[in-house]
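Quick one, tokens below. Sequence please?
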């Protein structure tokens, strides 16, 4: 038995060096960057942080079927649990995944083009700016890329020898990869299956080809079965992996796709997400069927418009610029010298993708006749493109194709250099010329649907929302002010500032910001609603109602109009009228969680405690809102009626939101203290209340701090809170 050859040892040494380089650059980016979203995750990263925090505490973050592919949040949750959610450890994990991707890229290059191409490709991916950016973020990107590179390497073995020992692992990895991002695997497996069938027919072994495809398909289904079974148990419906697939398909394929692709998280997103409710579609399967039906209707009724839309998305995919979605690399470049140095633009040339794409595309085509196995690379890049173009574009969705394009680009460059050295100048010039022509085409400026979004302002608005959730209201105000510096005429940001000052008890400031919002955009319904809310806080009833009349004239079916009318009526003691307004607001399809909380608070005033509990439970059946859970937990922990009070249930609810970022929110801490006092754990109640009091004082939340101080005195005397009207509220 012989040991590893010198060549094998050399490959292993280079593999380690390339992986370490990729790991080191990503870690350096994390430590060097001043990007605040590393420790205050926003947008999609915030959602993954929510899932992982629940999983780390042994809780199920999904009330029904998986909403997103589950593999990454489960892995992130395990990292949280092991490390106690150390941010450094979390990003070490991400940097490690990035290093693995670099090593796998080298192996891919070695297999399809040779050792030198593999080494150079691995180094280039280690230094590829956009990939570094997405690798060091709470996103599934590095895990997705790593799994699909393993799949591609295994597919190479299948191509060489389609035995079951190779087919089954390939299928299994495809199924696992689908649990991280399900869109690429079906298209690539289809391409691989077609290739196997064609080869088997050429060799007159069709039956073997069919068996190979069956084994491949069976292997890919096996990892998905547990997810589908879990979804069926949780929701009573067959959902193979997750429920957002048809919504994402609808976003990119409808008569208003240019608008829906650009929708940001917030009220407009919530309205779109609730479209199925208008037709009584409430279950996961019904929502999936609704959005899928919208897409098929669009295709059937407007085939020309549909094809034009596909053509636009194709042009965007094969363009050199980094297309923003929820993250814009250009905004984050300002926080990092490394990222700024590895991304940018040189004249019309977008770097690095605008250079990589033309070389990679030409490189994928050159040599196909002599090296049939490279059809796998072309098939994979095609599968990546189709999986994005069918939905909508975004820089991070192109990342799985980047290592393959890099390998092909380095392979082409190496070939052309060898041709020049061998005197084959004509062939080399043809190759360089083809790459130049493609480069000109892919770097032609194109407009994206998200170009109308001010991503710098959007960044700070998202960051402000995160700070608010964490209970850091001063930082939230600073972030909103930064957003206004970038976009001074943004009425929605002024409205958010009004709302935040209202939460802090500074009602005059809330009124001033709300008036500025209306002056900035008199046609924005949210501005009038915010002004009405600020006036309500200052007992300016008639003026508030006048603003609500204007708001209703702008959008008659907006539920917040009647929600505020209900709050005004309840404050004035007109409870029957208030109930009518609340009931009316709940009949609109886009009813918001705040309506349930406001209605429940009115019911509490009239001592209809059980009705208030039932209403909040109903709201939680339609939303996972933390504020709904907070209000319900408070009511169950403090209710004067013993038959309604359920401190144990309150403790369960507290456990669902008092983790991760929520552990620093004084409103949630106050509720947790009341729940602990309700079960007789006054030591913990005192600790949590003291923390809530300190944070409230630091944040300038004087009313909350005063209320918590009174509760602290009760807990010191071992008296649980029994006054549900003294509830904390973050609204």
């Amino acid at each position: 038995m012989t040991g590893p050859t010198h060549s094998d040892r050399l490959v292993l040494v280079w593999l380690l060096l390339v992986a370490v380089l990729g790991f080191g650059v990503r870690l350096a980016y994390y430590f060097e960057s001043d990007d605040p979203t590393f420790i205050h995750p926003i947008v999609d990263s915030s959602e993954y942080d929510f899932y992982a925090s629940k999983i780390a505490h042994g809780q199920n973050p999904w009330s029904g079927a998986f909403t997103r592919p589950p593999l990454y949040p489960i892995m992130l949750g395990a990292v949280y649990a092991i490390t106690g959610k150390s941010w450094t450890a979390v990003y070490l994990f991400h940097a490690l995944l990035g290093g693995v991707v670099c090593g796998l890229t080298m192996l891919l290059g070695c297999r399809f083009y040779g050792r030198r191409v593999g080494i150079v490709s691995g180094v280039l991916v280690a230094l590829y700016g956009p990939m570094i950016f997405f690798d060091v973020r709470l996103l599934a990107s590095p895990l997705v890329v790593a799994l699909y590179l393993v799949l591609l390497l295994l597919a190479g073995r299948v191509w060489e020898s389609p035995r079951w020992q190779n087919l089954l692992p390939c299928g299994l990895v495809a199924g696992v990869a689908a649990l991280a991002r399900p869109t690429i695997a079906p298209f690539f497996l289809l391409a691989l299956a077609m290739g196997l069938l064609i080869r088997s027919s050429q060799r007159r072994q069709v039956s073997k080809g069919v068996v190979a495809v069956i084994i491949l398909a069976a292997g890919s289904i096996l990892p998905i079965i547990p997810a589908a079974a879990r979804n069926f148990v949780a929701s009573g419906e067959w959902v193979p992996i997750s429920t957002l697939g048809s919504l994402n398909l609808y976003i990119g394929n409808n008569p208003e796709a240019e608008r829906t692709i650009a929708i940001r998280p917030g009220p407009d997103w919530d309205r779109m997400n609730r479209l199925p409710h208008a037709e009584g579609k409430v279950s996961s399967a019904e929502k999936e069927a609704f959005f899928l039906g919208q897409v098929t209707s669009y295709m059937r009724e407007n085939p020309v418009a549909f094809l034009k839309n596909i053509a636009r998305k194709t042009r965007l995919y094969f363009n050199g610029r980094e297309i923003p979605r929820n993250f814009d690399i250009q905004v984050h470049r300002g926080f990092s010298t490394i990222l700024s140095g590895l991304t940018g633009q040189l004249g019309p040339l977008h770097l690095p993708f605008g250079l990589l794409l033309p070389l990679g595309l030409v490189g994928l085509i050159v040599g196909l006749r002599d090296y049939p196995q490279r059809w796998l690379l072309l098939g994979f890049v095609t599968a990546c493109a189709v999986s994005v173009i069918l939905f909508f574009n975004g820089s991070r969705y192109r990342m799985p194709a980047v290592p393959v394009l890099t390998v092909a680009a380095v392979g082409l460059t190496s070939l052309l250099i060898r041709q020049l050295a061998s005197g084959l100048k004509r062939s080399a010039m043809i190759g360089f010329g083809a790459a130049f022509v493609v480069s000109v085409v892919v770097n032609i400026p194109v407009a994206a649907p998200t170009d109308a979004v001010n991503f710098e302002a959007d960044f700070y608005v998202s960051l402000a929302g995160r700070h608010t959730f964490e209970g850091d209201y001063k930082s939230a105000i600073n972030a909103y002010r930064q957003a206004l510096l970038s976009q001074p005429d943004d009425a929605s940001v002024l409205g958010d500032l009004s709302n935040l000052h209202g939460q802090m008890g500074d009602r005059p400031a809330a009124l001033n910001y709300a008036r500025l919002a209306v002056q900035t955009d008199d046609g924005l319904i949210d501005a009038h609603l915010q002004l009405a809310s600020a006036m309500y806080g200052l007992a300016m009833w008639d003026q508030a109602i006048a603003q609500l009349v204007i708001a209703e004239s702008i959008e008659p079916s907006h539920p917040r109009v009647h929600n505020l009318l209900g709050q005004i009526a309840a404050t004035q003691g007109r409870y029957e009228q208030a109930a009518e307004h609340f009931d009316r607001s709940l009949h609109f399809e886009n009813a918001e969680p705040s309506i349930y909380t406001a209605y429940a608070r009115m019911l509490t005033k009239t001592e209809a405690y059980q009705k208030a509990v039932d209403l909040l439970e109903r709201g939680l059946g339609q939303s996972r809102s933390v504020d709904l859970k907070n209000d319900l937990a408070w009511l169950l922990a403090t209710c004067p009626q013993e038959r309604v009070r359920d401190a144990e249930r309150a403790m369960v609810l507290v456990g669902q939101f008092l983790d991760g970022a929520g552990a620093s929110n004084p409103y949630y801490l106050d509720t947790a203290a009341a729940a602990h006092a309700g079960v007789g754990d006054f030591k913990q109640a005192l600790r949590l209340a003291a923390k809530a009091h300190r944070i409230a004082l630091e944040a300038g939340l004087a009313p909350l701090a005063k209320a918590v101080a009174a509760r602290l005195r009760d807990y010191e005397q071992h008296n649980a809170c029994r006054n549900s009207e003294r509830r904390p509220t973050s609204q």
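The chain is about 70% helix and 0% strand. Residues 602 and 625 are 19 Å apart (CA to CA).
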